[in-house]
Structure formats: structure tokens, C-alpha cells
Design a protein that fits this description.
The chain is α/β, with parallel strands linked by helices. Helix content is 52%, strand content 9%. A 6-stranded parallel sheet has the order 3-2-4-1-5-6, with helices on both faces.
Length: 311
Amino acid sequence: MVLVLGVTASGKARLGFELARTLDGEIVSVDSMKVYRRMDIGTAKPSKQAQQQVRYHLTDVVEPSESFSVGVFLDKALAAIGDIRGRGKTVVAVGGTALYLKALLYGLFEGPGSDERIRAELHAQAAQQGLARLHNALRQIDPEAADRIYANDAKRIIRALEVYRLTGRPISSFQKQFDAERPMHDWTIIGLRREKTVESQRINARVKKMIELGLVDEVKSLLAEDKPLSQQARCAIGYAEIIGHLEGRMSLDEAVERIKVNTRRLAKGQRTWFRTFRQVNWLDVEPEESPEHVIDRVKELIAGPPGQPAP
């Protein structure tokens, strides 16, 4: 069981694909947005050609009008892992959604229940005052959670504030399973890491490519569907900004620049999360290093030293 993680645009998808081909494996996607059907370009979903060569799990599993949670993800991921191993294949999990990765490694956070009255109040505040105001409020009571939760993630911001209102304690104080010394299962965890300036360049290049591939038309098509996009889907980076453009709130150039900025912020949050991960074999990738060389390094790491069993 191999897990490949890294910030957005780090090259983990290519690495996971090559490892799955080499190890006779199948890929479990650990991504909160690749689960949505027809949201392909903006989520950098694997190409049809890639999916013909390697089997992918946890992509295209729900409609964009539906919500999706970490609990549903974990149930489906564990079922997929059991199926893959039951057929004698290698599990290659790939992703950057930190909360999903944490759940996969250490289990779900068992926190307090919910209060619909509090949630309704917080949703109303978000609608009237803007989500940024709520995110700032969260930072005042729980800076650790605020660093981890993206500023457009309404669901998790509201849940964190709800937990504080219910208990008087920050949500981060409940997440003790994240302090476990070892994951629940025997994973070999590979982390890809690049200099921040290089990561930013790769992010900018990816955004440019998404626009060239037709992201605007993809969003137009999604907005034209009979059922409206869920709040979760509408808030996805790339989609939220293009929706703002299509609704006349900004030019396309402004939307593109916002996608770049928001993606870099996402990467910063991912780095914060990943610092809490244990048992990660971090690979520092040089700016000019070819994908093939990175893949060879990872294969050597998985194989272990000559005469030694693989980790």
C-alpha cells in the first residue's frame, strides 16, 4: 500500500500513475473535488487515456449538485482498498486533500454532535457578512484550524465555529487521533516537495493550461444543468472564480489571476497540514529534475536497499 501526497501541481498524479503501472496497482484518489462528475478540467482529473491504462477509484462518484463528506469518502475508500487487495493488486493512493488523507491514515475525528439552530445562524451570517468574516472569527478562536481550512470552505468553517459554540473548545483540540504515532494501516508514504517559487510557477502554468483546455466552457455547461451546483462544488477553486466571471463580477483575466492566488493559498494550507504528518518519506524535487528521474528515485525507495525487504 503506497500513498503519494503533495501540494497541488506537485507532480503526484504523474508519479502515482507510473507507480500503479509498475506495481500492478490501482489508484485510490484522495481528492475532495475529483469525486464530482463532469468537473474534469478544473480538478485536473486523469485523462481518459490514463484511465484506460490504470483503474481509478473515487473519481466521478457523485453529481455536482450533491454534497460529499469526509465520512462518505472514508467508507468508499476503505471499500475500494478492500476490493483492490482482494484481487491481489497494489493500492496506490494519491491526493492532496489533507483532511481526507488524515482520515485515511488515522481515522475519523469523533467530535460533538450538531446543532441546526447554530448552523442556521452561521449560514445566515455568512450570507449577510461574507465568508471571510467567519474565517477571520475562526482565526481568533482557533488559529490552527484557520490555517488548515481554506477561506472558501464554508462547510468546514461553519463546522469549526459550531463546535466552538457547542463546547467552548477549538475543533483542533478534539482532533487527537491526528497525533497517533503510526497510521492505521501499513502504508509506505511518499511526499513530493519543491521550493515554493517552483511550486508557484507550476501552479501558474497549470491554471494557464486549464483555461486553454476549456475551463470556461466546462463551467458554463455545469451552470446550464437542470440541478444547481452544490455549495461545495461552487466553492471549488477554479470554478468559484469562473462563476464570478460569468456572472459579470470580474473579467476573465481577473478570474484567472484569482485562481492563481487562491491555488497558491491552498498550497500554503496543504504545507501546514503536511507538517503534522508522520512516517512520510519526503523527496525534495530539483527544479530541472525530470519526472522520469523522480519516478526512478521513488521506485528505489519502495524497493529498499539491496537484500532488504521493501518498507
